[in-house]
Structure formats: C-alpha cells, structure tokens
From TrEMBL:
This is Adenylate kinase. Consists of three domains, a large central CORE domain and two small peripheral domains, NMPbind and LID, which undergo movements during catalysis. The LID domain closes over the site of phosphoryl transfer upon ATP binding. Assembling and dissambling the active center during each catalytic cycle provides an effective means to prevent ATP hydrolysis. InterPro entries: Adenyl_kin_sub (IPR006259), Adenylat/UMP-CMP_kin (IPR000850), Adenylat_kinase_CS (IPR033690), Adenylate_kinase_lid-dom (IPR007862), P-loop_NTPase (IPR027417). ATP binds at G10, A11, G12, K13, G14, T15, R127, V137, F138, G200. Catalyzes the reversible transfer of the terminal phosphate group between ATP and AMP. Plays an important role in cellular energy homeostasis and in adenine nucleotide metabolism. Monomer. It comes from Streptomyces tubercidicus. Keywords: ATP-binding, Cytoplasm, Kinase, Nucleotide biosynthesis, Nucleotide-binding, Transferase. It catalyses: AMP + ATP = 2 ADP. It is found in: Cytoplasm. Belongs to the adenylate kinase family. AMP binds at T31, R36, N57, L58, V59, G85, F86, P87, R88, Q92, R161, R172.
Amino acid sequence: MRIVLVGPPGAGKGTQAAYLAKNLAIPHISTGDLFRANISQGTPLGREAKSYMDAGNLVPDSVTIAMAEDRMEQPDAANGFLLDGFPRNLGQAKALDEYLKDHSLKLDAVLDLEVPEDEVVKRIAGRRICRNDSSHVFHAEYNKPETEGVCDVCGGELYQRDDDREETVRKRLEVYHTETEPIIDYYKAQGLVVDIPAMGKVDEVTTRAMAALPSRDA
C-alpha cells in the first residue's frame, strides 16, 4: 500500500501517519524525519541541505526529492510506504509520479485530512509548551493544566511558541493554500483523493481513514 497523506497544519498528519503506518505495517516517511536523519548522519544530501539551511535559504525541491527517493528504495519500503509532508507542491508531486512510473509502481490513495480553518488556528494557537521539557504539551482549551501557566508534570513555565501564534499560523495556512492545495486537485484528476473528516478523537479519525482505503486485494 502506497499512500500520500495531506492536510493543513494542525490537521494531525503526524499522529495519523504513525497510527496508519503501524496498522498497515509500512514505514512512515516524513519530510522532517528525512532531513533530520540525513543531516545527523552527514550524508551528501544532508550536507547539501544543511548548507542551504545555514545560509537561511529554502532547501531546493531537487534535494528533498532525492532524499525521498532514497528512502523509498530502502528494503522496509518494498511493500509500501506512507508519505507525510511529501510531496509538498506540484513539482514534487510530478517528480513522485515519475519515480513511481520508472519503478513500475503506483499510489493507492491520497488521504486528505479535512479540518475547518478556524479549528486549525484554535488547535495550534492554543498549544502551551513547558520551558523545562518540550515534550510536556498542554492546550488552553483541550488539555488545560491544573494551574494556568504551570506544567502539571514538572512545575515548569508554560509558554506559547512564536510558531504557534495566530498570525504565524494564518501565514502557514496561506502557504498551504498556495503551494500544497494544488496537489489535491492534481491527484483528484487521477481519482486518488479520499476526503477524511479529521475532527473528533484520534482513534475515530484513524478508523475513518482505514475504512476509506482501497482493499489491498484489489
């Protein structure tokens, strides 16, 4: 099973990707993990990506595509994979199509996690992170600490990251609409897109996504 997962920031792609990949016994391939792995291992692609990042520049699509292709060729991806964060734009989507065609492979589905924009803003802008340990995450509405501004786990100060501020979130959404949403229409033309309502509990969304996938025997 070869799947692309798309959706706006705050839709829960990372969480859903991990659950779906486990249920389907395929690797979860995320752009963030690819960059971290290549940079930490000092691969040629990692060094190239780091040179752009250190200079404050965007990493070119060619580097991202090469990292993704290298990962898809690893033995654990022989029977499928779930792509999260790639492709991010039309150029990357077309490159993925070429790669799959060259290897006599095809995508089985593109899962589009649908969340209303106001809910995206609420989810992200409400996050509060512990200054002592960033793994301690709370939410101003959905997961309130017992004492406002104080981490339940260690007593550290809770704060809002700059990336989580409403104005930043709305800018990220603009980028998503401009760069990533066009790939949904691209894949719709191929009959691959399945809309997944992503409101509700995590396991409920996972159940919807699993039910929407084509049969592996098809």
